[in-house]
Write a structure and sequence with these properties.
FAD/NAD(P)-binding domain, eight-stranded mixed beta sheet, three-stranded antiparallel beta sheet, globular, disordered N terminus, binds flavin-adenine dinucleotide
């Protein structure tokens, strides 16, 4: 499916001829030139494209017909919270909450439901202590609860001795599928173009980057790659490989193109959750009502990658969201668009640089 009514740039130059694209599939050839191309219409690419569309003619490409459930951004809900063991994420969250609220207002839809979040930890655990001090330092409404307080307030929960809890009162859930659709709708409202069901099969870096899909050839001054679990497959086309693993929550590796093949085995994730719930939430049924699969793309330090390609400054990479990127997408999109437009990023991006890894060229 393509939103052909909105492909303004492409329409002018549609050749109408049939040719064999680099992926080997014969399709109607579409050609077009825009300011920026974003590859990957998950939450990160969609938010980046939305920010970019306010400043430049932007094309967002996805390999699957939208919406789809094969990447990392689908599903009914995602947690949103201020509580983090790394302060630079909490620092971004204030603006994230504002931008999610703005999206709610602009699309007249409810996207956030406040619930609070109970974080459990051993008193002496350094990460738990950092989470507590980060919330205090950033004036985030929170309460510390002993195990006795927790049992009194939440009778279904029984914490072992030595474990206490933090209540992040700002936390809640985001309606993920709805949020993703709304960002894409808003992107289109700003004049953005979506080409879905088109897989990118070739990228030629240059001052004017050429992107070949299974249906067409597009050129742009700048390119953003936000391809989730497929990031390394795409970066391979531009001579870069990052230390990314595509994983289930338990850490077992998976290929995004063969996700359900690996998922046939009994999931360690389900066992892990069932054990935890039986032990510490004895008032709840530990068996899942529904099991859905969705993939993490982890970096070794679980920090994101938000940076220029080391050799091609007009190619920007947003990847490695390590199972916690959804809530941060409004700010991730903003800083990726700033990098793309050559503006000073609104946040210190040093924890997210590619040079923290020791890379080998794949060319
Ligand atoms: C089970 C689960 C629970 C999570 N819980 C939370 C949570 O509670 N809170 C939170 O903040 N985060 C959470 N996350 C993390 C969050 O959902 C992800 O960080 C985020 O969705 C990543 O988005 P993305 O856009 O990078 O990737 P994706 O959503 O995977 O998007 C990448 C897109 O690129 C496209 N693409 C790839 N290759 C090509 C190609 N060659 N041509 C064209 N298109 C291509 C794909 O089709 C895909 O649509 C969770 C993740 C999972 C899996």
């Amino acid at each position: 499916m393509c939103h052909s009514g909105r492909v303004a740039a492409s329409q002018r130059q549609r050749s109408g001829c049939v040719e064999r694209a680099a992926g080997g599939v014969c399709k109607m050839s579409v050609q077009g030139e825009v300011d920026t191309i974003v590859i990957g219409a998950g939450i990160q690419g969609s938010y980046t494209a939305y920010h970019l569309s306010k400043h430049s003619k932007t094309l967002l490409i996805d390999q699957f017909a939208l919406p789809h459930a094969r990447g990392s951004s689908h599903g009914q809900t995602r947690i949103i919270r201020n509580v983090y063991a790394k302060t630079y994420y909490t620092a971004m969250m204030t603006e994230c909450y504002q931008l999610w609220k703005q999206l709610e207002a602009e699309t007249n839809t409810e996207l956030f439901r406040p619930t609070g979040l109970l974080v459990l930890g051993k008193e002496g655990n350094p990460s738990f202590q950092t989470m507590k001090s980060t919330l205090i330092d950033n004036n985030v409404p929170m309460t510390t609860l002993t195990s006795a307080d927790v049992s009194k307030r939440f009778p279904a929960v029984q914490l072992p001795r030595g474990v206490s809890a933090l209540l992040d009162k700002t936390a809640g859930i985001l309606y993920a599928d709805r949020a993703l659709k709304n960002v894409q709708d808003l992107f289109r409202r700003f004049g953005g173009i979506i080409r879905d069901g088109e897989k990118v099969v070739q990228i030629q870096p240059s001052d004017l980057v050429t992107v070949t899909t299974t249906a067409g050839i597009y050129r742009a001054k700048r390119l953003v790659i936000t391809a989730g679990p497929w990031t390394n497959k795409l970066l391979n086309l531009v001579g870069l490989q990052l230390p990314l693993e595509v994983c289930y929550h338990s850490g077992s590796r998976a290929d995004p193109d063969e996700r359900d093949v690996s998922f046939q085995r009994p999931s360690q994730d389900v066992e892990l959750l069932r054990d935890f719930l039986s032990r510490e939430f004895p008032g709840l049924d530990p068996n899942p009502a529904v099991v859905e699969s969705c993939m993490y793309t982890n970096t070794p330090d679980y920090d994101f990658i938000l940076d220029h390609h080391p050799d091609h400054k007009n190619i920007i990479v947003g990847a490695g969201f390590s199972g916690h990127g959804f809530k941060l997408a409004p700010v991730v999109g903003k800083v990726l668009s700033e990098l793309c437009l050559g503006e000073k990023p609104s946040y210190d991006l040093s924890p997210f640089k590619i040079c923290r890894f020791h890379l080998k060229s794949v060319l």
